[in-house]
Amino acid sequence: MSVIVHYAGNPDRAKETVAAIERAGGTATALQADIADEAEVAALFDHTEAAYDGIDVLVNTAGIMLLSPLAELDLADFDRMHRTNVRGTFIVSQQAARRVRSGGAIINFSTTITKLALPTYSAYAATKGAVDALTLILAKELRGRDITVNAVAPGPTATPLFLQGKDQATVDHMASMAPLERLGQPEDIAETVAFLADPARWVNGQVLYANGQILKQAGRLDVVVHNAGHMVLGPTEAFTPEQLAAVYDTNVLSTQRVNRAALPHLRAQRDGLVVLVGSTSTRGGTPPYLGPYFAAKAAEDSLAVSYAAELARFGIETTIIVPGSFTAGTKHFANAGHPDDTATATAYESEYAGLMDQIGAKLAELAPADADPTQIAREIVAVVGTPKGSRPFRVHVDPADDGAERVNALGDQVREQFYARIELTDLLHPSS
Q1: d(CA 408, CA 284)
Q2: What's the Cα-to-Cα distance from 322 to each of 297, 363, 394, 398, rounded to whole Å?
């Protein structure tokens, strides 16, 4: 991972960020620029392209928040916020639209305040409303470029920007607004950004409200769909333990994080549906060089099976969607990660030269010409629309037919028989 860390007037914080990236195994450089100055921003992008041969992801976090009742706001403060939050976002997005490579992502920062409409935030919210509009329109203007454009809209988050000038009573009140009864942490927002930066290729032209208040926005929660995932390709030995942990974090721990936030609400209403998108690799044909990904998907499947039984008496239903390999129509293979230990990977190449090309070609041959990954989405829609108690436990969408459906059928039959032996058959279906 190679990162340019931009800063305006705080080089020490920028250096801390660079150091954190380097400790995580990446490379980073801090550069100063005024994001509202077109020439300085162009120079920033020029330096980035020269240093790293291109730009794949832009995360535009710069912002100023000055609070006052509208009638009392100094227009100089309004102009200052507009210069950074609107003009700055526009100039940076303009350069990004010209330079981000195919397969990349542009991520702007908005705010949940545009929905909460709290007093004293009118000018700040107005600037972020402009960011929302810019983001949604730019996503459409980049049609055909394979570049996603989204905005993250954090709620109250424990950062200096939020905490400055607030007494403890105000902070405690805003923390209590979320069903999780806490402030967001920078890590919560970073996870949303990381999701948009790579695995979330089908999320585009959206404002994601990362605020812990999903029930406040929608009134209730009925369905949770777990679809986050990231593939890696290469000899298993060549992946570092840290890389395996990162794959596990995206494919497994993200499921647990979301469940811990969502399931208390489903349990309280004694109703709901949990949909997990797994992989035929957990039971079907498993070609080599995909070990870390397969292991993570197997772990997710095991979690799903256990959750299905543990949630049944709360009236919560579980369905596992099991996609096979789709070699066309997705960026799953193109955006896959690769081993950091290149020396070990090279050693394997002497015996397994061209292996991944062979696997990709053969998988493409196995799939019918009309294999369409959007069928996965249609199957999810069908499951959600099926009456409670009639939903399937598993749905396979496998154009290559790698055998997983047959193995899963036997495994699920054994599970049902074992539950009968231990007199727990009521856990095979949600209570009414």
Answers
A1: 9
A2: 10, 17, 7, 8
Dihedral class, residue 388 (left if φ above 0, else alpha if ψ from -120 to 50, else beta): beta
**Does pLDDT of 330 surpass 90?**
no
Residue type, 43: A
Cα atoms found within 13 Å of the Cα of residue 157, Cβ hemisphere only:
20
Confidence at 215, pLDDT banded by 50, 70, 90: very low
Which tokens hold the place of 414? Answer: 């054994």
What backbone phi and psi angles, to 5 degrees, belong to 34?
-90, 110
Instruction: Name the residue among 292, 280, 108, 139 with its Cα closest to residue 202.
Output: 139
What is the reported pLDDT for 335? 74
The two tokens of residue 62 are 């710069």
Quote the tokens at residue 141: 């203007």
Q: How many C-beta neighbours within 10 Å does residue 152 have? A: 24
Q: What three-state secondary structure class fits 72?
A: helix
Delimit the domains of the chain by residue range: 33-214, 220-432
Residue 16, classed as helix, strand or coil, is: helix
pTM of this structure:
0.55
Judge whether residue 323 has pLDDT over 80: yes
As a whole number, the mean pLDDT across the chain is: 88
Phi, then psi, of 151 in degrees rounded to 5: -125, 140
CA distance 284 to 286: 6
Closest-CA residue to 382 (of 372, 370, 397, 400): 397
Active-site annotation holds for 124: yes
CATH topology of domain 220-432: Rossmann fold (3.40.50)
Other beta carbons less than 10 A from residue 224's beta carbon: 21
DSSP label of 24: T
The class that CATH gives domain 33-214 is alpha beta
Q: Is 175 helix (H, G, I), strand (E, B) or coil?
A: helix
Q: What pLDDT digit, counting tens, does each position of 39-54 carry? A: 999 999 999 999 888 9
Over the stretch 254-304, which tens digit does the pLDDT of each residue have?
899 889 888 988 898 899 999 999 999 888 888 899 899 999 999 999 999
Q: Of the listed 124, 209, 293, 348, which one is catalytic?
A: 124
